[in-house]
Amino acid sequence: MQHDKVLILDFGSQYTQLIARRVRELNIYSEIHPFNKIPANLEDYKAVILSGSPMSVRSEEAFHPELKGIRGEKPMLAVCYGAQYLAHFSGGEVAPSNTREYGRANLSFVKEDEFLKNVSVGSQVWMSHSDTIKSLPTNGTLLASTHDVENAAYKIEGETTYAIQFHPEVYHSTDGKQLLENFLVSIAGVNADWTPDSFVEETVAGLKAKLGNDKVVLGLSGGVDSSVAAMLLHKAIGENLYCIFVNNGLLRKNEFTDVLEQYKGMGLNVKGVDASARFLDALAGLSDPEEKRKAIGRVFIEVFDDEAHQIQGVSWLAQGTIYPDVIESVSATGGPSATIKSHHNVGGLPDYMKLKIVEPLKALFKDEVRRVGASMGMEKDLLGRHPFPGPGLAIRILGDITPEKVAILQEVDAVFIGELKKSGLYDKVWQAGAILLPVNSVGVMGDERTYEKCVALRAVESTDGMTADWVNLPYEFLQKVSNNIINKVKGVNRVVYDISSKPPATIEWE
C-alpha cells in the first residue's frame, strides 16, 4: 500500500525531529531532508513543511532553499525561519525584534480560517526567534497575533501556503498538534493511514520479498531496537534468522540469563555467547573512555565474526538502526556527516564478512519502535526497558576496569533499578543507572573507620536522548536506596545523586 508522505525541509533547527514525530503521531508518514538536498521526485510528497533554523534570514549566510516545484504547487507550511524566509524574500520585511520573542506566549487575535479551526484566542504557543516579521509578503493575509508579535501566522492568497512564527511541534504550544492536523488533513488532504499495524504488515511483506530463503544474522543487545528488529525478521523468515547475544561481562546483574530466557519465550532462534573473560582481558589497564570503547568494539566484532562464520551460507547482516541514526548522519548544512557510534549497532564490521545490510527499523523513531513492538504483542517489560549503552558498565566505571569493580557496580545498579521498579518510578524515568567513581571516601560503619568506594546515581527524563533533564526523585526514595546500597553492597560507603541536565552534561559520564 502506498502511503501519502510529507516532506520536511531541515534548516538546522533543534526541533526538526520533533516536527516529524508530531506529524507521525497523526498517523502520517513524514521524512526529513536537508533544505539543500531536496529529493528529485517531488511527486512522492503530498505536502511540505519548512523547519526553523538558528540562522537569520537577514544574514549573508542565510540558507536559501530551491522551492521550485513546491511553492504554489504543493500545500506548504513554513515554521519560524521558513515563515521569515517567505516574508523577507517575497515582498515583506524582517527586522531584529525589539522585544524578547522566546518562550511561552498566547494568541491575542485569531482569524476565522480552516488553518486555525479549534484554535482560540488565549491558546499558548512557543516562540524561539530574535528576528520578527515587520510586514507580510506580497498577497499575505494575517491569521493570528500575540501581544508582542503581530504577524504570528499568515497565509498567502492564491496559494496553499501557510506560515507561523511559533513552533507547533513543541509541547508548550497547546494546540500545535491540532494546527498540524488542520494543515495536513483538512487543507492538504493527506491520508492518516500510517499506523504500527500497517508498518508491521508492509515491512514483513517487504522483508519476505527482499530476503527470500536467504539466511540473516543479527546481533541482539537485549534492548528495544534489536529485539523489535528481530521480531519483524522472525515473522518474515522464521528459522532463517540467526540471532547472536554476546555477554561482554559488562551487562547488568543476571542480564545475560534473564534476557536469553525472555527471547526463548518469543520463539527466536538465539545463541548466547559468554565472552566475558575475553572482553575483560582486552580492557585490563585501560582508563581512557575512548580506548575502552574501541577495545570493546574490536572484541565484539571478533566474537561476532567467529560466531557468524559458524553459520553456513549467511548473506545478510541485520541491524537495529533507527531513523535518528539516519538523519543525524547528514547535517542540514551539508557539512561533514556525523559518525554513528559503532556500539549502537553492529557498525564497522570487517569487509571480508561481505554481508548485505538489512535495517527493518530505519524509518522509525524510538517511540514508534515501541509501538510497533506492542502491535506484535511483545512483552511490555521488554518494550519499556531503559536504553543501555553498548559498552555497558565499562563507561559507568570511571577509570580502569576490573572484575571486582564490575561486580560492585552490578550490585549497586541492581538495588537502584530494583527500587525504581518497586516504587512505581521505573516507567516515569527515561534512563537510570549507577556510576562507580574513581575515589574512595572516609566513612564509619559500626565503630570502625572505613575507606571505600563512592557511587553516583543518575536518572533522567527525555524523549530521544538528545536533551535530558535530571529527575526529581523523592527524598524518601533516595534515602531508602542509599541505605540499601551502603548496607548491602560491600565496598561502598557513600552515595551521591547527579543533578545535571543535558546539555551541558551528557547522560553517561564517559
Can you describe what's shown?
With 510 residues, the protein is of the alpha/beta class. Helix content is 30%, strand content 25%. It has 13 helices and 18 strands. It has helices spanning 16-25, 81-88, 176-187, 196-211, 224-237, 255-265, 276-283, 289-309, 323-328, 366-375, 380-383, 403-422, 475-488; strands spanning 5-10, 29-34, 45-50, 76-79, 93-110, 124-135, 140-146, 153-156, 161-164, 215-220, 241-247, 270-274, 314-318, 356-358, 431-445, 448-461, 469-470, 492-497. The strands form 3 sheets. A 9-stranded mixed β-sheet has the order 2-1-3-4-9-8-7-5-6, sandwiched between helices. Strands 12-11-10-13-14 form a 5-stranded parallel β-sheet, sandwiched between helices. Strands 15, 16, 17 and 18 form a 4-stranded mixed β-sheet that branches. The two termini are 45 Å apart. The model is unreliable at 331-347 (pLDDT under 50).
Helix content: 25-40%
- Global shape: globular
Low-confidence stretches: 331-347
The chain-level structural class is alpha/beta
| Helix run count | 13
Nearest-integer average pLDDT:
89
The major sheet is characterized as: 9 strands, mixed
Indicate the proportion of strand residues: 25-35%
What Rg is obtained from the alpha carbons, in whole angstroms? 26 Å
Number of strands: 18
Q: Can you list the strand order of the major beta sheet? A: 2-1-3-4-9-8-7-5-6
Termini separation comes to 45 Å
Features:
510 residues; alpha/beta; nine-stranded mixed sheet; five-stranded parallel sheet; 13 helices; 30% helix
